[in-house]
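Peptidase M28 domain-containing protein, Dissulfuribacter thermophilus. Tokens?
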Amino acid sequence: MNALKKADPIELRRIVDHLALKIGPRHYSATHSLDKTRDFIIKEFELQGRKIWLQDFQYRGNIYWNVIASNHNGISQHIDKEPILVIGAHYDTVSTTPGADDNASGIAGLIELSRILGKHLPDDVVLAAFSLEEPPCYRTRNMGSYHLAKHLKKSDIDLKGMVCLEMIGYYSDSPNSQSFPVPFMKGIYSNIGNFIGLVGNLWSKGLTKRLKASFLKAGTIPTESINAPFWVIGSDFSDHWAFYKFGYRAVMVTDTAFYRNPNYHRPTDLPQTLDFHRMAAVVDALVVATIDLCRLSL
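Tokens:
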């Protein structure tokens, strides 16, 4: 790990500012804003030397794009090789918000993870920026992540797992700043919203355990985890849901969204509400996890 730099809060802020303030809301109906966001993400990855594959799909007569970055010219290059690790985040928003935490923070984390790993990005890692996670596509086959997961399954590509970055920027040190979907969790987890959460389904226990072990080894940020049944509200509220649908193991990395952040889906979801130093700590832990999951020696 000594060969790698640490995540830079200034870089994270730059990306979030660009998406949330310069571009603004990135709703499915705002195709021009989504196209600008897509082009920005492509440029960031290309500046790092990544190869880009654009996966296009249609919804209500318009074309949308997933931006897939890796060391290969397209995911097809991974066929017949080792299982791949997909790390992804969505770049769209609902219409009512600039989406700093939801989900410019996830995209910033994805880009910064790639920058920090640099030439050490494992060949079996795929970085995916998804369009159309939010309503009305949310939890439907119209999600960008659904299209990618379907493509992987049809291509018989095996996965080590999928790691979903869904809102990683909002933290609080105040008592009772953290709420929960079910009452019993109050007796298990802290009511102070200063931690990052790892959330998977029951099928993904092994992946969650390995991911948490890496986060704890990194020691950069308090980390909690849960593998929850489908009826726990919020446990599958992002792109990892699409990978579940195709039988893949997946874990969401999250600040817990509306269980902590009062600005969720509101005009007040702005960069100044985020903690970029803690965001950087999450990225540093993700670097360790990526290396561990791919068994890379540095």
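The longest helix spans residues 100-117.
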